[in-house]
Every structure is written in structure tokens, then in C-alpha cells.
Amino acid sequence: MFKKKKNIIFLICDGMGDRPSKHLKYQTPLQTAVTVNMDKLAESGMTGLIDPIAPGVPPGSDNGHFSLFGYTLNEVPGRGYLEALGYGLELKEGEIAFRCNFSTVKRNRKGLLYVIDRRAGRIKDREAAELSKAVQNEINEIDGVEVEFHHTLEHRGILILRGNLSVEVSDVDPHKVNEPVLKPLPLIKSKKAVETARIVEKFVLETYRILNNHQVNVEREFRGLPKANIILPREAGGKTLVKSFKEKWGLKPACVAQGPLYRGIAKSLGMKVFMVKGATAMPNTNYKGKIEKALDLVEEYDFVYVHIKAPDVSSHKRDSKEKTDVIEKIDEAISQIVELSIQNLSDTVTVITSDHSTPCETGRHSGDPVPILISGQGLRRDAVKSFSEKHCSSGALTRLTGRHVMQILLDQLNMAMEEGLKMPKPSPYFRADYEPLRLKK
Ligand code: ZN
Ligand code: ZN
């Protein structure tokens, strides 16, 4: 039998990978930032570059994460579902959830609704909550399908449709301004998808009817603010039956994350989710608190996934200086991990990587590979002494695909099964349901 000795802290710095920026003398934020701790881990471990999904494919945060955790793209349940889960909303099979925005639309002469502002001037919580209540009061069900709308933050919300529905329905949100609101279409040939598209269309038209002349919007217009006169659903998702992380890898997982999408990803894979005081999923988050929590959790859990959203936030703002600063704060926060690791005082394997690159020059996710480091007692080392996109390109892990990472880690924990053995994977060590042979009485 294998003996489990080590555990893993898996730190995902969202959108950390970047391209050289003209504002940083053609260096990346990770190259520019002073990262003594990450560099020490790189020096004492192995590094490489990862294509989270495949070379040149820009991942979304949801599928980037699923790939890093060893799942395939068709196992990703859809962002609407993951975010709903992150907000504590449960769904049964056949029920679906959408991410939504309160948006501003203007009707043209032909009766098309043109999107003027996708976020309705980033409407404040109080007003959005009032509009949300109006929608909830008027739309409880559409043709036998139960309808729930939950306002979350600012202009954002979640639509849940409870019935026997399909996630294969296109986005209503055109994702651009000065474009018409799109008619939801079935994405596959199925009765269920056609029916779902029809329900979504009814919902969207109803929200326009309810919201366009609502008192809140009349007042907003008076103050010169854009009306929040429609709700635009997108990214439908529903429960998929995937193996939990523990079943798949034999590791007992925990997660430290603040953003609802990330809490949802963790929950959907059966990870226990922990939140930390002062964590905000923004550049002003409590970096130290998150790492301290992770260090506590590795005492009890085999795999602790820590998510830090801040680098991606700065990237979308196209602020390479802020991103550099954020990376330095992450580096400071991990000093304790590094001390324990360098002095060989811990059995923890530390992984630092990213779910995708988000270059500050474009403010959008890109298909550039992301750097990774894996460091821990007794693990191989390579000649790389610094953690950056450039240095990691000559690391021992070379260029991997995201879905290979977990298998490599399992092997580093001495839990990988030798190929050819007829034993339940991932490891007999964790199989409590393993049945022993019994002598007949
Ligand atoms: Zn991301
Ligand atoms: Zn992003």
C-alpha cells in the first residue's frame, strides 16, 4: 500500500500570465514585479509553461480551472450554474441558471432593442434590488416553468428556470454595445432546447415591459442616468454529473476563494469552501489571510486550492502597474510557505500557476501559455531561478496541457498507480470502500 505523506497547496493567480507591456519597458508584470518568494520556489522546484486548454485557445476562468483540475471541456457545467452554486442557489437536474445583467436598451423604429449600456451605468445595489423585486413579483412562472430572479451585485443577477430544460440555448446579450438584443436560439436540434429558448425570450420581453417605465427608471432618466430597462441572460448552465475531485484523484480537497464563480467551481467538484475575513476578490483583498488559511487547512486536507482574483481584475482594467503591485502582494503573502518549504519543514508541495493569461495591453483573456512552478521537499529541480513567463519557458516541465497537471502532482505525492496494475484508480490508499477478501465460515 502507498503511504500518503504530502499535501498540496494549489495557488491559482487568476489571469496572471501576460505579454510584454510598453508601459513596463516591454516586460510582463510578472517579470517586473519583485517576487523573491516565487523565485525561491522556482529555484527549489521545477517550472514550465501550461496551455490550460490547448495552444492558442483563450480559456474562460471556468474551463481554465476545470482543465487544471484534470476535467475535460464537456464536463464544465456552464458558468450560469457555477455562479448560482457560488451564491448558494441549488439546482436539480433539468433546471438551468443564467448570469444576467441589468442593461440599457433603446427601441428603434423597426422594434429592435439596441444595447446602449451593457451594465446600465453600473447601477447601484439599492436601485437594482428594487427593480429585481418588481421582476420577481410579476414573473413567477412562464408556461409551467418556475422562474426565479436573484439580484447579486450592482448590475448583476442570476436567472433560474426550474423545469425540464436544456442548457443549449444561445446568449441574449450581444456582448457589445450598439448591437441589437439577440433572440435566444436552440444550439442543438432538440425539443427541450427549442422550448427553453422560447421561455427565455418571453422572460426577456417581459423584463423590458416591467422595467422600461418603472419608477426607478423614470427617476434615473430624470437624473440623466441610463435606464436599467431590460435583463439580459447569458451563459446558461445546469448540473452535470461529473466525478467529484475526491473520487477522481483520491485527494480530500478544500478551497479558499471569494468570487462566487470560484466558490461555485469548487462546490461543483465537491470541495469544501472557506472564505476569509477581508477577502474581496479585488486588488484590495486580504492576501495574507488567504495564505494563512491555506496553511491551516493543509493540516486536514490533502489538496487546498487557493484562488486570487486580483491579477485578472487589474488586467481587465488594462492597468499593468496595478497588476505588478498585486503580484508583489501575492509574493509577500506566500513568504511563510516559502520559509517552511526551503527549510524542509513541511511536507507541502506548492503549486503556483494561472487559469489563463490576461494581457494588460488588450484587457482580454488570451491563449498565451501560463507559467507554473511545482516545489516541495524531494521533488526534482531544474535550472530556472526566477518565476516568469520567460524563465519558465526553459523549465523541466516544458510546455504542458492543463489536464496533465493533476497526474504529475499525484505522482509527486507517490500516489500514481503504475500503469498496467488492475487496481481502482486513483489510489487504493484512499479507497475506504475497498473490499477485502473474506474467508467463508
Ligand atoms: Zn480567470
Ligand atoms: Zn478575466
Primary descriptors:
eight-stranded mixed beta sheet; alpha/beta; globular; 441 residues; Alkaline Phosphatase, subunit A; 14 strands; 2 domains; six-stranded antiparallel beta sheet; 15 helices; binds zinc ion
Kindly describe this structure.
This protein is of the alpha/beta class. It has 2 domains: 7-76 and 241-412, Alkaline Phosphatase, subunit A (3-Layer(aba) Sandwich); 85-238, no CATH class. Helices cover 31% and strands 19% of the residues. The protein is built from 15 helices and 14 strands. Strands 10-9-11-1-12-13-2-14 form an 8-stranded mixed β-sheet, sandwiched between helices. Strands 3, 4, 5, 6, 7 and 8 form a 6-stranded antiparallel β-sheet that branches. It is globular. The two termini are 27 Å apart. The protein binds zinc ion (2 copies). The site of one zinc ion has 7 residues, from α3.
Please sum up the structure shown.
By secondary structure, the protein is an alpha/beta fold.
